[in-house]
Amino acid sequence: MLFLVILSSLFVVVRTVQNHQTGFTTIFTTNRLPWNGSVLDYRMMPYVGNGHVATVVFSDFIYMNGLYNGDNGTSHRARIPSTLNWQFLFHPSTSSFSLNVSSGRKIVLPTRINEQVTSDDIDFVVAARNEQYVLLSGKTRQVENNQFQLEQLPVFVYYTPLPVNGFELDPQETSRTYLFVTSIDSEQERAKRSFEYASNERHSDQIWSSHVSLWNDVWSNGRVEIVGDDELQRQINSAFYYILSSLPPLSTRSEHKQFYGLSPGSLSRGGLVGEDYAGHSFWDTETWIYPSILLFYPNLAKEMLSYRIALRDSAADNARLFGYEGWRYPWESARTGVDVTPDGYLDIATYQQHITGDISFAARQYIAATGDRKWLMSEYGGDLVYETARFWASRVVYSNEKKKYEILTVLPPDEDARPFKNNSVFTNAVASYSIQLAHRVSCITKKVVPQHWLDIAFNLYFPFDNATQTHLEYDGFDLKNTIIKQADAVLLGFPLMWPMNKEVRRNDLLFYEPLTRASGPAMTWSMHTIGFLELNDLDKAQQFFRRAYETYVQPPYNIWTEIPESLGAVNFITGAGGFLQAVIFGYGGIRLTLDQLEVMPPPRLPNQAEKLIFHGLKYHGSILDLTIDNQNYHIDVRGMDNNNSMSLVYEYEQEYFPLTNNIRLSYPINTRLVIRPLMHFCA
To answer: Lesser CB count within 10 Å: N end or C end of the chain?
Structure first.
């Protein structure tokens, strides 16, 4: 097996080892790589990354977070030529690794090297080439936007000279380790320092063991364990892996760098406009990927929000450009925060405005999970909350006919509703929540919400069909004859948890299921899974749970595709995020609100699982393990933050007790446990 180890900046260790764990749930093996005719199908190959850099195995390019080339709608990830573009010239099924004892000659393993030092996106020069390293120095060819990016982006690549003469073993040797290091950064000194650290200060085995140790730290920090269903465990492990590989590490030797967002196609793809969303960030980040990360890795969730905060000037300018106030976030975002939606989709960029509410809702959930007052007061979190609310307050109009506020000419999450509709029910919900949140945290932020804003929040018009007791996706929506792309109105039930009775919740699910086109993305069925688990329709939930991943995950490396049967964007971590939400919030029965954390597991586990364990859930400084079997669930408190000023209590059947370290709480499934701060902020 070929191991490619990536550490910050980018250290690559190439080792050949024998794999003894082919049946284990973290190992994905195959006797044949995926091919498309006579060509290796890179779309189905896995990727390795660390949030700073990533590459698809055997591909021609490496990508660095935040490095984009192209003007406005042509902006895309800048392609850095891969330093791994070489092959062993032997067939792995032959006895190529043999020692000729009769002659005692050296064994030479030849290689084919395809060293590239040019890029269509970066003007590279070979600044140095010696026995220790090759240095490529360059700048991207175009700025993304002249107003918010003054010059092209620099990039420096240090790498070990490639093995043009192959690999040798002396007659007396049975093995030898070769270390190849690549370090990539926007600052030359940092790139060089990282290269020298890996090349000279550490043995290759130390680099490898450090890499393994850091990944072990990730999994010990938070993970989902399935007992009794190895195949489901593999699905969960790979989904988390592909998301986490595009996020910053939990710890690093390097100084902190600004994170520049998550794209639906991960950090490993997007080198062309029109390919896997060109590395752009959408609502996918906050709505689909972020929730599965928040409760296990709140620091990474904060990094995701920091991307939006860092680009606040662009968001303010975007609001002014359309005649509104506050911060309006773009539909597609890359390096500068201007809208980089390509030509041909500019109507989507104009009307798909719910993303500003999606970002605000993600901020709401971060506050709910952490109670992070510092983020609100001194890290621009309070500004994010207030200015997105200001946008919505300036966006509405009052209808004398309806005696309600409306949001007109918008595109809902269902993009089949192009070019625009009035009163998207999802958009109106996130707008209302956005204003409510600004008011709720005002005692911390000291940003007073005008009464007029609150009038808007509580008097927005929600399209609703009284005859069928069903939410309408937008004004005039036909519940019988309209085909939709993906989950939309059903999102009111989850993740928004908009107040409604069970009848309406069920009707929303039942009416919109047959209207959703078969070629839609997987996340729709994850949301239906969660909804039917809420309603204790366990068979229907199980049906949708399998539908949420089985045709979207492609062998042999569990690569997610946007559309069933290998179509659409690949390495589609949006789908992986939706699937994980079905596990965590569906079968885990977890709900997070501004006031509390609720746990109420449904009376059935997924697939063939006998036990479901959530290791390392984080809530207001506490660390919780949640174990669910077919009869009971247990919460083990294995850590409490003594610096957290908010004491926690738990409630079960209207009795309250203090939550303390090293206790176990056990209750029957399908009953509710609530954990919350003793005192609500801004109550």
So the answer is: C
